[in-house]
Design brief:
mainly alpha; homodimer
């Protein structure tokens, strides 16, 4: 790398970070307006007003509402598919750890940007090309990565034998639905903890997979013995 | 009851049944058109054509698209709230049995009429009064009945201690999402069995709550013993 390149590199990095921050804010403001007024009734001027910037300044980031939908696909579905692919590929995590991680990722994304997710879901018919193809591909990749993690857990015996696709779609439903019920300002981590626990309980084959204490294990043994005794 | 009343009573009953059947078919056809063409672009003529009836015949059942939304609220959300209230009130079922029943009810409704559920969800902003108020009330009742069943299970120790509202919303998400992924003609009962199993695993506190065989119970005891031994 030349001295000139080194000298220049921080500038694009800063500008990219700023652009990402503005994009996140822009998508949040736009999707909240779409949710409140409807997609058709929201103008770029409305979005500029909500961002407290001029319409020419807004054009620096987005040229049309179609652009916004394409950005949503990138931010919401493609981003999630990329992160899940990285997670699925990690050799240092067990299927159970990956299951907990992916549940946390999904829930946090839905809690932080519920309007983004719901508007994207409702706007699927409006998506311009190539955003539509990218969206469908990203959704397929998310399902494929989740299914692979579940299949791996079933293969090692960490998870009960289940139809992996149905299990992945059930987990997605539980996590996606957060975008429908989360209240503004709600605390995220208790929800992440509860849903991560549910995901694990749904699939873990043994008490070992659960955060059990010795007392839990003893109670479970006793319950199983009682149950067997009743059936003798 | 007079002889005259007795003689008349079968007629309204037959006519009500026929009306219910036609209403179900009408809502299925209309919501499939809304899903394919969009709500705004679908006319009553399109719906009459899809039903293979004349427009005047259609007017016998529905006068406007607003009417259709009101009927959807009645058929989808109010109907579910009524059925769940009956289920919650039954003294002959344990919380676990109620949990399994309600999961089956939710999944079957979503599998059989996915377009009805998704269109109703997407049209919440368009609902005319009094349908809108009825819809919001019905959704609250569904959540209240489910929360009550979970609270009862936590109180008896059949369920693990969980925030009942979050658990109810997680179950709703898992079951509602079926409307997003079910394929036409898919077999219902395997999906019901898998999701009912997940619901129970999410909440049941003991192996006793699960449909375990003696072999399952023995395996679970052995796993717990191994786990305890490792920690000694």
């Amino acid at each position: 790398m030349t001295a000139q390149h080194e000298g220049q590199s921080p500038k694009p990095a800063r500008s990219t970070t700023r652009r990402t921050l503005v994009t996140t804010e822009l998508l949040d403001q736009a999707t909240q307006l779409f949710a409140a007024k409807g997609y058709e009734s929201t103008s770029l001027q409305d979005i500029a007003d909500a961002m407290c910037i001029s319409r020419p300044a807004l054009y620096h980031y987005v040229r049309s509402k179609d652009d916004l939908l394409a950005m949503l696909v990138e931010q919401v579905s493609q981003n999630l598919a990329d992160v899940l692919a990285d997670l699925a590929a990690r050799a240092d995590l067990s299927p159970t750890q990956k299951l907990r991680e992916l549940t946390g990722l999904l829930v946090r994304q839905r809690v932080q940007h519920p309007a983004q997710f719901r508007i994207l879901d409702q706007s699927e018919k409006l998506l311009p090309e190539p955003a539509d193809t990218k969206h469908v591909e990203a959704k397929r990749r998310v399902l494929r990565e989740m299914t692979a993690i579940i299949d791996a857990g079933v293969a090692t015996g960490e998870f009960i034998p289940v139809p992996a696709r149905t299990a992945a779609l059930s987990l997605l439903g539980m996590c996606n639905w957060v975008a429908w019920w989360i209240k503004p300002g709600a605390e995220v981590e208790p929800i992440v903890a509860t849903l991560t626990g549910f995901a694990q309980r749904m699939l873990a084959s043994t008490a070992d997979g659960r955060p059990a204490t010795p007392a839990d294990a003893l109670r479970e043994i006793r319950t199983n013995l009682d149950w067997l005794e009743q059936r003798m």
